[in-house]
UniProtKB/TrEMBL annotation:
This is Fungal-type protein kinase domain-containing protein. It comes from Ganoderma sinense ZZ0214-1. Residues 97-540 form the Fungal-type protein kinase domain. InterPro entries: Kinase-like_dom_sf, Pkinase_fungal. Residues 337-387, 624-686, 719-803 are annotated as: Disordered. Residues 719-734 have a biased composition (Basic and acidic residues). It comes from the Eukaryota. Residues 340-367, 656-668, 737-753 have a biased composition (Low complexity).
Length: 803
């Protein structure tokens, strides 16, 4: 039947292929099984098509999706549907284009799910389309594919791949050796269950004055335990993870990630509420694949310096490190194929070895050799060490479209709430002010002096803390701000133009970036750019969550935050550019009128925007003064008479300037009196006034905004009921550029009350109490990466990296 596989529907093809492999035992010790799971159901809850994968052994009680070893993707034959086939897009019909894109999307989704649920370094996958198949190897840098082979005409190649795959160990199959599965029979499984149980000693995290009987020693906030409990899903495996701590290793217990990136390629950031095996305390564990070449320091190294300098309102480092020298190899293969062009066209018998860690499939013989027998010596079929020089060493900063990534983990003490969980406008300003103070301290302390360079809503987090007044007696729970994700930071004195690689990967969340940087990505980041990002964070969360006269929240956000036409364009950032560079006022478009909150938020935003408008006026004027001079008019142009210009006798006349030597007698005399090379053609309205220069200086440094925001917090007109109720307008139609889907579930903070008192009080504080659990979350920002168009090679598919 498989001889006619090109004519078979997908469901019949997959079943026949599975039965053939299982009945003939083509993969000893493995079976191909079908299954469905919750991640593959539609929005209406109806099950989608069955999935297929290779599992170890035979399981009488059925298979579980997270136990699969090598997934299979089946498709009915359709000319051009193979997404790895090098074919001109213009020659494909719209139906084939959609099917091709859908297949690649499903391959990526399957890989992302397995990378997250199985802690993979790499993944092998079989793609079967009718009578042809490919073997895919996926890692965080992209996909390697073998040539498409007709397994009916060349069965030996498929048999070889199936048999060799069944002989690979876990490391060679792409499983992370630093992670161990926690089974229901393990003591750590019970340990996680017990840690998730509600504890009457846990504190509610709502802002309030603490009672004398409420203990504050070694406390845990209830929402942190709730977040951990939510990760213990029955359909998700649990793991024991090792993280480097200097020369030692620390162990943490995790289950389902609290957030994970939406694509397998790129940084692949995942965040876990983890249980520290040494202290039995909850911590935040971030697992990511950082770029190997040095665009920025490792996040843990920066946090270590910040903690040593006593910078306030930043995460507290527990441990961090690269994981067992795990790096991606797809970039290596791209470099190899690009540097050494093939002298012969790929054939069905072309062999391709895949490396994982330090092992590879033996490529000493052609995988299509018909002389090879199944009962050959084990030395021919088992794994062998990768010969030195077979795969070129990755050049992390290569000119190709792919980059080498290194596996990295960092653990911090705090498990925080997302900024969207703030409860009223005054609290929002207070949290942002805390993070601005952290930014200020990091920028001015001599031993640090760095800029964050990725200020966004996703990196400004809420951290409930127990604080004391100066008398040391009265204690209160206050929601403070934590500025996280410092991995893109650079020294303040870095003024050199950014390289192409740096521009591609160091930029932050573009919705919150300054107009100045978005207009030219090569410009170095300045303090004014960072302060402007804080302003945009305030605008976004105020518009989206606070009461205002804005009737279309999604429309304002799309026009202000999501419109970006690229560097060099006029008003490249939409309404953001208009407000910063032209009007100096936040306007709604429908109807066209100023945005108002009718709280002190109006004064705060207006004052900040006035200074930023002056800042851009000064920048524009300075840019004109330093621009290369325009070529002066030629003598012919200067002396051209009205009749020569075609204006006739009644045309415009040249107005002679006054002179102490008397009026000039001709146009040539006028030209002789004018210094054309030093004329300033700047419009009078574009020349900054003394007041403009003074206002612009206020946002060149932190002190004015720190002082002004602190003053505005004491304004008597703040209302604690100024947050708008949740509506479909704010929850469904508006996309959160801060990546709110990466935050812990907001339900954990839904029960928090505003606290006692009618106004938010800025307490005179002595500092955080010792031995207090300080929750927080690190966030992987959505980074805007310029697209790079490269002609695809015959066996390598570059996949655009995402954070």
């Amino acid at each position: 039947m498989l001889q006619h596989a090109d004519a078979l529907p997908e469901t019949e093809l997959s079943v026949l292929f599975m039965d053939a492999v299982n009945d003939k035992k083509l993969a000893p010790g493995f079976r191909i099984s079908s299954f469905t799971h919750c991640a593959q159901t539609g929005n209406d809850g109806s099950p989608r098509r069955a999935c297929f994968a290779m599992f170890r052994g035979y399981q009488d009680d059925g298979v579980r999706w997270f136990d699969q070893i090598i997934p299979f993707e089946f498709r009915q034959h359709l000319p051009g549907i193979d997404p790895f086939e090098d074919i001109q897009s213009s020659s494909l019909s719209s139906e084939v284009k959609r099917a091709r894109a859908r297949l690649l999307t499903e391959i990526s989704a399957c890989a992302e799910l397995l990378f997250a649920s199985q802690h993979r370094v790499s993944l092998l996958m079989f793609l079967v389309i009718g009578r042809r198949f490919r073997l895919l190897r996926l890692d965080r840098a992209g996909i390697l594919v073998t040539p498409s082979v007709d397994y009916i005409d060349n069965p030996a190649i498929l048999l070889n791949y199936l048999y060799r795959s069944s002989r690979l160990d876990n490391d060679s199959l792409g499983f992370d050796p630093s992670v161990t599965r926690v089974l229901p029979s393990d003591i750590d499984f019970l340990r996680m269950d017990r840690a998730a149980l509600p504890d009457i000693a846990d504190l509610d995290h709502s802002e309030r004055d603490l009672k004398d009987e409420e203990s504050c020693e070694s406390i845990t906030f209830a929402y942190v335990r709730s977040l951990f409990r939510a990760t213990l899903a029955s359909d998700w495996p649990r793991y024991r993870i090792r993280v480097p701590d200097g020369d030692q290793q620390r162990t943490f217990l995790v289950a389902k990630p609290a957030f994970r990136a939406g694509d397998f390629a790129g940084r692949g950031t995942r965040g876990y509420v983890a249980l520290d095996c040494a202290t039995c305390r909850f911590v935040w564990l971030k697992d990511a694949w950082r770029l190997s070449y040095k665009v920025a320091d490792r996040e843990g190294d920066i946090l270590e310096k910040l903690n040593a300098a006593n910078i306030s309102n930043v995460p507290t480092l527990v441990c961090h490190g690269d994981i067992a020298n795990q790096t991606t190899i797809t970039a290596d293969w791209w470099e190899r194929k690009s540097r050494i062009p093939s002298t012969t066209p790929p054939s069905s018998t072309t062999s391709l070895s895949f490396t994982s860690s330090s092992t590879a499939l033996n490529s000493s013989r052609s995988l299509g050799s018909k002389k090879r027998k199944r009962n050959d010596a084990h030395t021919d079929d088992t794994l062998v060490t990768q010969p030195v020089g077979l795969t070129p060493h990755a050049t992390g900063c290569s000119a190709g479209p792919l980059r080498e990534h290194t596996h990295y983990r960092v653990v911090v003490e705090e498990v925080c709430l997302h900024l969207k969980n703030f409860q009223y406008g005054q609290q929002l300003v207070s949290i942002v002010l805390d993070c601005m103070r952290a930014h200020y301290e990091a920028a001015v302390k001599p031993e640090i002096r760095i800029l964050h360079r990725d200020i966004s809503g996703g990196n400004i987090l809420i951290c409930p803390k127990i604080l004391r007044q100066r008398d040391g007696k009265k204690r209160s729970i206050m929601w403070t701000g934590i500025l996280s994700d410092w991995e893109l930071s650079k020294p303040v004195d870095t003024h050199e133009a950014a390289s192409r690689a740096t521009r591609a990967h160091r930029m932050g969340t573009y919705q919150f970036m300054s107009v100045n940087l978005l207009s030219d990505l090569s410009r170095p980041v300045q303090i004014a750019d960072e302060l402007e990002s804080f302003f945009h964070v305030l605008v976004y969360y105020a518009v989206r969550y606070l009461n205002s006269n804005c009737t279309s929240t999604s429309g304002f956000i799309q026009g202000y935050f999501d419109m970006y036409t690229g560097p060099g364009s006029a008003y490249a950032c939409g309404q953001k550019s208009v407000a910063m560079e032209s009007s100096g006022v936040l306007y709604m478009q429908h109807p066209y009128k100023p945005l108002l909150f009718r709280t002190p938020m109006d004064n705060l935003l207006a004052t900040m925007l006035k200074s930023f408008r002056a800042h851009y006026k000064v920048l524009e004027y300075d840019a004109r003064k330093t621009a290369p001079p325009q070529p002066p008019p030629t003598p012919h142009q200067r002396s051209q008479s009205p009749s020569d210009s075609g204006d006739g006798e009644d045309g415009p006349q040249v107005g002679p300037p006054t002179s102490s030597h008397g009026p000039p007698s001709s146009v040539s005399d006028v030209n002789s009196l004018v210094d054309w090379d030093n004329q300033d053609d700047t419009p009078v309205t574009s020349i900054p006034t003394a007041e403009d220069v003074k206002l612009a200086a206020k946002v060149a440094h932190h002190k004015f905004l720190l002082s002004y925001m602190a003053k505005m917090l004491d304004h008597p007109r703040w209302r604690m009921s100024d947050r708008r109720p949740a509506t479909p307008e704010t929850d469904s139609r508006t996309t959160d550029p801060a990546g709110s889907s990466h935050a812990p579930p907001s339900a954990a903070s839904a029960s928090a009350s505003v606290g006692n008192g009618s106004k938010r009080r800025r307490l005179k504080l002595k500092g955080p109490e010792r031995n207090v659990s300080l929750p927080a979350r690190l966030h992987a920002s959505t980074r805007r990466t310029p697209r790079t168009r490269v002609a695809p090679g015959p066996r390598t598919l570059p996949v655009k990296a995402r954070s």
